[in-house]
């Protein structure tokens, strides 16, 4: 369920990244090519981006489908950035959270998205509630599994974990409580990207001069796209990608060079 994408590299317009490619995130909202769960990503969307001189990203989120938002079409044409995180949300059960449930979630310099599900939500999360301070639970941006996973990640970031460790430890923690959970997590601070492939597809493309894209699926047929193995953590910047086993706390990433 859901499709998401993060980019760091030379300045691009949102339209060049999210709309123009043949199999763009826009098209994936109604015709994903590699989505294993769900069919139509029409229950909201969001995009976050970074502007020069401001560490905190801007966001544009809506509760409806991305293809129906004419304001986003204008925004995508003129907004340019060197770092973007965007997501389209799978059709789900009715809820009252509206655009608050749409990724990316944000705090400070961070943007976050979750592609997947926690089966048995919210009961499955009960063992994890005690790991969070009450103020974090009261501050959940939405009453969804993704918002709760974000709270777990953010708690670790605030405690001093690096992004890779925060994602891996959260994925392992949630998977222990809900073994069938799908936990493709995506995080950026505007300079680096961290992600987990855990139960759904994840791909990346990196090339000198073109930056790095990490996405649920390729948005074009460029031969540089590479699939990330399941249960893998990825860290990347505009020049390259690191991969390591996400379920092995002692794993050391190995650099995958740009080609």
UniProtKB/TrEMBL annotation:
Keywords: Glutamine amidotransferase, Hydrolase. One of its GO terms (molecular function) is hydrolase activity, acting on carbon-nitrogen (but not peptide) bonds, in linear amides. Pathway: Amino-acid biosynthesis; ergothioneine biosynthesis. One of its GO terms (biological process) is ergothioneine biosynthetic process. The keyword Hydrolase applies. InterPro entries: EgtC (IPR017808), EgtC-like (IPR026869), EgtC_Actinobacteria (IPR032889), Gamma-glu_amide_hydrolase (IPR052373), GATase_2_dom (IPR017932), Ntn_hydrolases_N (IPR029055). It catalyses: gamma-L-glutamyl-hercynylcysteine S-oxide + H2O = S-(hercyn-2-yl)-L-cysteine S-oxide + L-glutamate. Its EC number is 3.5.1.118. The keyword Hydrolase applies. Residues 2-259 form the Glutamine amidotransferase type-2 domain. Gene3D superfamilies: Glutamine Phosphoribosylpyrophosphate, subunit 1, domain 1. It holds the Pfam family GATase_4. Catalyzes the hydrolysis of the gamma-glutamyl amide bond of hercynyl-gamma-L-glutamyl-L-cysteine sulfoxide to produce hercynylcysteine sulfoxide, a step in the biosynthesis pathway of ergothioneine. This is Gamma-glutamyl-hercynylcysteine sulfoxide hydrolase. It comes from Streptomyces misionensis. The gene is egtC.
């Amino acid at each position: 369920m859901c499709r998401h994408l993060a980019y760091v590299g030379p300045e691009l317009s949102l339209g060049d990244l999210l709309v123009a490619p043949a199999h763009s995130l826009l098209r994936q909202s109604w015709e994903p090519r590699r989505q294993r769960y769900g069919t139509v990503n029409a229950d909201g969307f969001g995009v976050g981006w970074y502007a020069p001189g401001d560490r905190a990203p801007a966001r544009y989120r809506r509760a409806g489908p991305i293809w129906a938002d004419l304001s986003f079409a204008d925004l995508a044409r003129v907004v340019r950035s060197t770092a973007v995180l965007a997501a389209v949300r799978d059709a789900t059960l009715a809820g009252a959270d509206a655009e608050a449930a749409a990724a990316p979630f944000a705090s400070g310099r961070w943007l976050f998205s979750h592609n997947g599900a926690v089966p048995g939500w919210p009961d499955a999360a009960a063992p994890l509630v005690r790991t969070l301070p009450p103020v974090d639970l009261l501050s959940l941006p939405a009453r969804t599994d993704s918002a709760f996973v974000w709270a777990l990640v953010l708690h670790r970031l605030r405690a001093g974990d690096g992004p890779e460790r925060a994602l891996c430890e959260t994925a392992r923690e949630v998977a222990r409580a809900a073994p069938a959970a799908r936990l493709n997590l995506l995080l950026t601070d505007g300079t680096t990207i961290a992600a987990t492939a855990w139960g759904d597809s994840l791909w990346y493309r990196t090339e000198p001069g073109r930056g790095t894209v990490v996405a649920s699926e390729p948005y074009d047929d460029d031969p540089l796209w590479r699939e990330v193995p399941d249960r893998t953590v990825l860290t990347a910047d505009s020049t390259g990608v690191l991969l390591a086993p996400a379920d092995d706390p002692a794993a050391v990433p190995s650099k995958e060079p740009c080609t």
